[in-house]
Structures are given as structure tokens and as C-alpha cells.
């Protein structure tokens, strides 16, 4: 009887210990809205004002900041590791896949951080400021307003060698896209919604020139491209392509966050293979058609997907730090 009692007690202790461990793990990675409510109550207003000032200087701020957030989250998680500068050129931002990131995105976060530090020194992470600034740039050009979960710490690793293979390529097919997003707990529908960020910004000719001149031996130009759109791209990007030439991702409303991106896909006007494939593949086509018809549905799905993206690989508690300078690890 005593042995049985001790055995039951041991089992109960193990169960309690496991449950406690799982609770700690869940709590450790938990983000919450208004995380800085008592420590920096004016945080969101400070960031928004800083972002508005930057946008007034250049529209590039908007797509640059949005793209910066994606690139950050997909490598080490949403931890501002992409912001670290290195005199040796071996930080995450120096990787080949990140060299095209516009400097205005980095500058947006750095200036917002400086404004926050003036009021709430040493309290708010660069990772959270990037998440807030991303929400703001979307909203300020017609996109949805949404609440941002906060509580991230800034990461302690930023290496160019860790970037390759962690970011989607313009040539990806649907399976490659789906598999890469799935590694971050993002579904097919999440991926399609997040791809809608291509309603803003631009890309350089060398990122899609293969679709114009060397798609296949039988069809040098990708047949999924609308012929008129293909001619426009060829005029802007001659055969001996100048990699510095930039083309709007959305040929119709490039400075408005809307669902026209999906309407473009239906018309054969997706700039990348990874864009157009969302409509040409039967698995994703219904979602594209639905988003093209309903901007409200797209916005709601985009908010959910952005919230999930913002949870990817976050550091909380003792897993990271609150950088004083977004470009440098604390010494």
C-alpha cells in the first residue's frame, strides 16, 4: 500500500513538473498587446510620428520597412537581427539575399528607436519597433489598422552565412513557397495573404528577366505573362538588362495597399514567377480570386497572417536583449 502510494506520488510529481515546464515554455514565448503600457505608455504614438516624418521624406520608406520585417522574421525570427551592422561585412544584412533591402527601411527603425529612447530609454526592443513601424507603413497607405503583439527581445546572432535558403526566391513554385512558409507555421492561405505585400514597392530587372528572355527553349517569354505586360517589361528592361533599373511590383496602384495585386495575377500581371504561380496553380487560385473580389477579406486575412508572422522565432525573457542602438549588439 505504501509502495503504491509512493509510486502514484512520483507519477503525479512528474506530471506536475512536465506541466510546469510546458507552461514556462509557453509563457516564455508569449507576446501581448500593450506590453509597454506602464513602462512606455506613448510608445505607439512616438513610433507612428517618426514613421510619418520619414514617409514625408520618401515613399520608399513604406515598401522598404515592410520588406525588412519579412526578411528579419524569416531568418533568425522577428528579433531585429537584420539591423546589425558589421565592419567586416558578415552580418545578416550583408548576405546576398539582403543586399537589395533599401536603406530607408533601416533608417525608419533607427530613427524611431532614437525617438523612443529619448522618452523611454532602455525599455523597448528594436524588434518591437520594427513590428510597429511595419504596421504603420501599411496603414498609412490605405492598408488595415491592426494591433501589434509586443514583448520581443533583440537577438544576439546576426550572420550572413545563416541567410541562404531561408528566404523565398522570385523563381519559386507553389510547393517551394508552401514548404518554406510552413516551416514558420504559416499556411497556404497565410502565404497568399502575405504575398499581397507585393502591392507595394519595386524590384530590379535582374530578378525577373528570365521570364522575359530565357524562360524555356520553346518559349523564351513566360506564357503566363500577359503579352501587353510582357512588352512593357521588355521596354523597361532590355535584353542586356541593367540590374539597377527598378520596376513597380504592382503596375496599377503601386503606392496604395489594396487587393489590386490579386486582380493583376488574374490578368497575367504578376511580376515574379512566385507571384503568378499563385493564380496558375489550382490549389491557390480560389484564394487569389476571392481576395481579388473582396478587399475586406484580404485585409482581414492579412492581419491574421501578419500576427502569426510576428510570432516567428521571437526571443523573450533572457533569450535576448534590449539594444541601445539597433545596429549594434550591447557591449
TrEMBL record:
Binds 1 heme b (iron(II)-protoporphyrin IX) group per subunit. Its cofactor is heme b; Ca(2+). It catalyses: 2 a phenolic donor + H2O2 = 2 a phenolic radical donor + 2 H2O. Residues 30-330 form the Plant heme peroxidase family profile domain. InterPro entries: Haem_peroxidase, Haem_peroxidase_sf, Peroxidase_pln, Peroxidases_heam-ligand_BS, Secretory_peroxidase. Keywords: Calcium, Disulfide bond, Heme, Hydrogen peroxide, Iron, Metal-binding, Oxidoreductase, Peroxidase, Secreted, Signal. It is found in: Secreted. Transmembrane segments: none annotated. Gene3D superfamilies: 1.10.520.10, Peroxidase, domain 2. Residues 1-21 form the signal peptide. Its main location: secreted. Its EC number is 1.11.1.7. Removal of H(2)O(2), oxidation of toxic reductants, biosynthesis and degradation of lignin, suberization, auxin catabolism, response to environmental stresses such as wounding, pathogen attack and oxidative stress. Belongs to the peroxidase family. Ascorbate peroxidase subfamily. PANTHER family: PEROXIDASE 55 (PTHR31517:SF51), PTHR31517. This is Peroxidase.
Amino acid at each position: 500500500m505504501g509502495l503504491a502510494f509512493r509510486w502514484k506520488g512520483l507519477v503525479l510529481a512528474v506530471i506536475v513538473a512536465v506541466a510546469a515546464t510546458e507552461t514556462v515554455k509557453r509563457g516564455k514565448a508569449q507576446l501581448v498587446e500593450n506590453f509597454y503600457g506602464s513602462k512606455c505608455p506613448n510608445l505607439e504614438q512616438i513610433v507612428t510620428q517618426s514613421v510619418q516624418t520619414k514617409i514625408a521624406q520618401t515613399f520608399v520608406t513604406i515598401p522598404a520597412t515592410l520588406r525588412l520585417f519579412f526578411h528579419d522574421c524569416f531568418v533568425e525570427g522577428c528579433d531585429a537581427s537584420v539591423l546589425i551592422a558589421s565592419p567586416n561585412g558578415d552580418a545578416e544584412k550583408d548576405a546576398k539575399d539582403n543586399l537589395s533591402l533599401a536603406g530607408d527601411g533601416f533608417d525608419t527603425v533607427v530613427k524611431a528607436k532614437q525617438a523612443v529612447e529619448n522618452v523611454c530609454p532602455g525599455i523597448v526592443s528594436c524588434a518591437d519597433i520594427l513590428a510597429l513601424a511595419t504596421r504603420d507603413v501599411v496603414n498609412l497607405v490605405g492598408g488595415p489598422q491592426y494591433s501589434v503583439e509586443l514583448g520581443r527581445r533583440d537577438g544576439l546572432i546576426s550572420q550572413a552565412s545563416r541567410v541562404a535558403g531561408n528566404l523565398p526566391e522570385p523563381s519559386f513554385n507553389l510547393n517551394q513557397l508552401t514548404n518554406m512558409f510552413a516551416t514558420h507555421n504559416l499556411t497556404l492561405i497565410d502565404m497568399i495573404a502575405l504575398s499581397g505585400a507585393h502591392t507595394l514597392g519595386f524590384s530590379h530587372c535582374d530578378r525577373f528577366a528570365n521570364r522575359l528572355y530565357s524562360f524555356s527553349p520553346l518559349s523564351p517569354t513566360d506564357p503566363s505573362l500577359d503579352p501587353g505586360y510582357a512588352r512593357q517589361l521588355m521596354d523597361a528592361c532590355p535584353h542586356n538588362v541593367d540590374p539597377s533599373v527598378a520596376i513597380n511590383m504592382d503596375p496599377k496602384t503601386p503606392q496604395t495597399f489594396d487587393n489590386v495585386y490579386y486582380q493583376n495575377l488574374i490578368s497575367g500581371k504578376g511580376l515574379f514567377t512566385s507571384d503568378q504561380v499563385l493564380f496558375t496553380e489550382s490549389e491557390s487560385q480560389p484564394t487569389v480570386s476571392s481576395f481579388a473580389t473582396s478587399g475586406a477579406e484580404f485585409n482581414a486575412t492579412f492581419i491574421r497572417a501578419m500576427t502569426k508572422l510576428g510570432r516567428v522565432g521571437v526571443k523573450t525573457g533572457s533569450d535576448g536583449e534590449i539594444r541601445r542602438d539597433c545596429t549594434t549588439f550591447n557591449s
